[in-house]
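Below is how a single chain appears once it has passed through the pipeline. First comes the sequence as given, then the structure the pipeline wrote out for it. We keep one example in the README because the format questions we get most often are answered faster by looking than by reading.
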Amino acid sequence: MQLNRRQFVLAAVAAGLCGGASHAAAAGGNPLPSYPAGMTEDQVDALFERALAELQAKTEANVARWGIGDWDVDLERGVIGFATRDGGRVQADVQVIGTYVAARESWMWGWDHPSVPAPIAAHARLVRDFGQRQGLLTMQRRVVEGLGADMAWGFTALAAHLAGAAGAYRGPTGGTFVFMTHGTLRPV
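Resulting structure:
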């Protein structure tokens, strides 16, 4: 069964809500968004809408500024790089939110992925923690079956929102897509 984003949110909210707590950004101690206990389905849906809109705006700004092309990632160093339209390169710190296999409609969270070093999964853990506080079981299960790619983007947008990331990228690797958030792109 494939759930669209709204169906996912409604199912997650129906599972029950629990309390929230504020976070501080891992880098720099900047305050991050905090959400109260007992968010309604409309509030959770609005949060996903806001996160997706924020990510779309950030993506458009990054593409307009740099003209993003070929990509590479070094998970040991925690860096993603892109070719730019002028033949240069930009890079940023990277976080893996999860991987998505379209043929199986299967999502595996970065917070417990065997190929993702723990420091590179901090943004994924923010989503897991949010899901725990709000009773959203899909954010707490290591592997989630039956979700469309739209939910993979929804999870990634929420991670970018919660972490204050500068953008996100979906990198194809064979039949699997790696969904990542990244920091501010800088020339190298």
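Confidence is low (pLDDT under 50) at residues 1-29.

See the next section for the split statistics.
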